[in-house]
Design goal:
The protein has 13 helices and 12 strands. The protein is α/β, with parallel strands linked by helices. The termini are far apart.
């Protein structure tokens, strides 16, 4: 089946002090119809910038190369009106801050009903009924009150439900979700995530889900792509990643999750500091932090090697397979 979304060798650089600053170093990934792909990585690794190349909302002056194919169309080559149509018909975006997605002077009813009338040409009566149904489906108990409210009268969790209702209304082929629950309090986070997951599955929509939380991605995604310094270092299913990670960074991400049951008093950390894409030189981008780094890691470009249904960017992944299947000793990497 043809993928809904395909990113092929996306490179992005921004002008910086008379030169260029590289932020994405060749991101390639695909999302199948109905599939949820998690894009996981530390702050600054390029997760949001990757999404922005799909929406074509990267910062002014950005130089982007590579191909983005969405529903068979070459997104980067589309003219303004075709791009608007593609965004309206095929895509929906849910970001971290629902307040930014809503007009502060419109009541929820106006926001939803006008959106449905514009996008689907529905009458106000039909659109109002659908808006009410959608709010009930995203778990809003008092639909009347919510419809009558302005954004400032609703909590972040309620607002994110409204944004999800608007996003799924047209059953777009692809949802782009950028840390959709990070700004919410912890209890609300899991409720909102469960609603998003349920709506996506019921409507068979694909999703590219950006998060720094490997556990959350594992719970709601079919596959996970791990991003480091503007490039993907591993793609696998959550089960594969947990039972047998093939990249040292994935192993260390798994080991550095806080655990209530861990017996060790040492909080495991990934050694060193995250490297920005523009700081990467020759050889493996992770070498400076990698406990398994060897002389062969230092030169040339380390490519993403595909093995059956997964992919890894590490020169030593075959040698290390057995070792990476087990948690590291936190004393050794602290
Ligand atoms: N408008 C901008 N101008 C210049 N640099 C930017 C801009 N936006 C992001 N960057 C830089 O691009 C890199 C990737 O940023 P991006 O926002 O994609 O990271 P991220 O993985 O989404 O991180 P976070 O988890 O913090 O949201 C970072 O080094 C960031 O500082
Ligand atoms: S290529 Fe070498 S430095 Fe890079 S992750 Fe693999 S073992 Fe570590
Ligand atoms: Mg981000």
């Amino acid at each position: 089946m043809t993928d809904v979304l395909e990113l092929d060798d996306i490179r992005l650089a921004l002008p910086h002090r008379g030169g260029d600053r590289t932020l994405l170093r060749g991101v390639s990934l695909s999302v199948a119809p109905g599939e949820a792909l998690g894009l996981v990585g530390e702050s600054g690794s390029g997760k949001s910038m990757t999404l922005r190349t799909v929406l074509r909302t990267e910062p002014r002056g950005a130089r982007v190369t590579g191909r983005v194919t969405l529903d068979g169309q070459d997104v980067r080559g589309l003219g303004a009106s075709a791009l608007r149509r593609l965004r309206a018909d095929t895509l929906a975006m849910i970001s971290q801050n629902p307040r930014a997605a809503l007009n502060p002077v419109l009541r929820v009813s106006q926001f939803l009903v006008e959106g449905l009338c514009d996008a689907r040409g529905e009458s106000r009566e039909v659109a109002t009924r659908r808006a009410r149904d959608l709010l009930a489906q995203v778990g809003i108990a008092d639909v009347d009150r919510c419809m009558d409210s302005y954004p400032h009268q609703l909590s972040g969790g309620m607002l994110q439900r409204v944004v999800i209702a608007a996003a799924v209304a047209g059953s777009p082929r692809l949802l782009l979700a950028d840390e959709p629950t990070t700004a919410l309090d912890v209890t609300t986070q899991s409720e909102v995530m469960a609603i998003l997951d349920e709506q996506r599955r019921e409507r068979g929509m694909a999703m590219l889900f950006v998060t720094h939380d490997l556990e959350l991605a594992s719970a709601v995604c079919d596959r996970i792509a791990v991003l480091y310094a503007g490039e993907i270092v591993e793609i696998a299913t959550p089960d594969q990643l947990h039972s047998a990670p093939r990249h040292p960074y994935t192993r260390l991400l798994l080991d550095s999750r806080p655990s209530l049951t861990a017996r060790t008093p040492v909080l495991p950390v990934i050694p060193g500091r995250p490297v920005a894409a523009y700081e990467v030189g020759d050889g493996c981008a992770f070498a400076a932090r990698c406990p398994w780094s060897a002389p062969q890691c230092a030169d040339g470009e380390v490519t993403l090697a595909h093995h059956a249904d997964r992919a890894v960017r590490c020169r030593r992944s075959d040698d290390l397979a057995g070792e990476l299947a087990h948690a590291t000793d936190p004393e050794a990497t602290a």
